[in-house]
Specification:
The protein has 385 residues and is an alpha+beta fold. It has 3 helices and 20 strands. The protein folds into 3 domains: 60 residues, no CATH class; 44 residues, no CATH class; 210 residues, Jelly Rolls (Sandwich). 11% of the residues lie in helices and 27% in strands. The termini are far apart.
Length: 385
């Protein structure tokens, strides 16, 4: 290339080649018997590129970067101080160089931290769900919280939360059964205990001890059958959480809920429902968890047991149990709350089994639903509530 440039320069100087005022070649250059239509401008540009390349190689060999550049490839610093940068590295969320705008967890960009979005009680950023007056996230009580964490509920003269007794003469002695960890109630299997597609199970409990990771309140199941079980409600982890077992379309499922621990020597109402698409769990009439699952409930021929799941020892209940109910429907939160503190008539629609534990004597727990599924008390003793 150097020889070519020298040849062109010599030809121009010798008058063998004419150029116009813009140094543009106006004659044809013959090299190796080939016509090359070129311009002086393109040749000078090529020379400049060669000079740059030579400078780059010299920089790489010596490590000395030319003044005004940030590397051997003649790149410069951008406004953020980044070599060959595009000024985006120091832009804030609004595109301002070295700005102080910040993007919050909801995607809003400004420099005012006072309006940053926050998490609601479910932990959702920018959510609007709040804790109601009873401390329930997403609850509906916006006035005041009454007894047993029921909105506006008060105790009657008999001490029953939500009761309607106006004088002590109206008070009815309420009984429960106490289980000491080796006792149970057995209700023989009957087709009338099976539900069709939906179910609600309710029971009152007052534990005083936990000796196992699984202490059962009520079950229509059989342990030791692999996954061929039924449904059951239990206390798990030494009373740290509430658990529900359910067999749906031939598959065994287990569900639990956070913030569902059992307090010893304290009564609470526990329930679960299944409507064919969702299993829901309740404490004192308030929904605490929901689990999406669909399919048909698998009915079985197991006995219904209260305070235990057969056949092994170690899964018994410790403490008192009272008022167990089974429905052939998935009751709503409002429906559960409406009957927690009252006696049923026994003729309510969808009622499968109702044991109110108010016999106070004897070894039989009567089913007041009209279906005649009476229980045999095995060791549990009557106590007053």
């Amino acid at each position: 290339m150097k020889k070519l440039v020298i040849l062109i320069f010599s030809m121009v100087m010798a008058g063998e080649m004419e150029v116009d005022g813009n140094l543009t070649v106006t004659d044809t250059l013959i090299v190796n018997n080939k016509d090359v239509n070129a311009t002086i401008d393109s040749l000078l540009s090529l020379i400049a590129q060669l000079e740059i390349r030579i400078a780059q190689l010299e920089c790489q060999n010596t490590g000395i970067i030319p003044d005004g550049y940030c590397d051997c490839f003649f790149h410069t610093l951008d406004e953020c101080g980044v070599c060959n940068g595009d000024t985006t590295s120091c832009q804030d969320c609004a595109g301002v160089l070295n700005g102080d705008n910040l993007q919050d967890m909801c995607g809003y960009c400004d420099n005012d931290s006072s309006n940053d979005c926050a998490q609601d009680c479910f932990g959702e950023w920018g959510g609007t769900v709040e804790v109601d007056q009873c401390g329930i996230c997403g609850g509906t009580c916006d006035t005041w919280c009454g007894c047993d964490s029921i909105c506006e509920a008060v105790e009657d003269v008999c001490g029953d939360c939500g009761g309607e007794a106006e004088s002590e003469d109206d008070c009815v002695l309420d009984y429960a059964l106490y289980f000491n960890g080796n006792e149970k109630i057995n209700i023989p299997h009957s087709p009338t205990l099976n539900t069709e597609g939906q179910i609600t199970v309710e029971i009152w409990c007052n534990p005083d001890n936990f000796n196992n990771n699984e202490n059962y309140l009520i079950s229509k199941s059989m342990d030791g059958q692999g996954w061929n079980r039924g449904w059951a409600m239990r206390a798990d982890g030494g009373g740290s959480s509430m658990g529900v077992e359910m067999k749906i379309d031939g598959a065994y499922h287990y569900f639990s809920a956070d913030n569902s621990s059992f307090e010893q020597n304290s009564w609470s109402h526990r329930a679960f429902t299944y409507d064919g698409n969702t299993l829901r769990m309740f404490i004192n009439g308030n929904e605490i968890a929901s689990h999406p699952i669909s399919g048909n409930i698998d009915n079985n021929g197991y006995d219904l047991t209260i305070g235990y799941v057969p056949p092994y020892s170690g899964y018994f209940w410790y403490g008192s149990l009272d008022k167990a109910i089974i429905w052939n429907s998935a009751r709503t939160e409002e429906e559960i709350q409406s009957t927690m503190y009252i006696e049923l008539t026994g003729s309510e629609p969808d009622l499968v089994g109702y044991w109110n534990f108010n016999e106070g004597i004897g070894s039989t727990l009567n089913d007041l639903s009209g279906n005649g599924n009476h229980g045999i008390i095995d060791g549990a003793t009557w106590v007053e509530r």
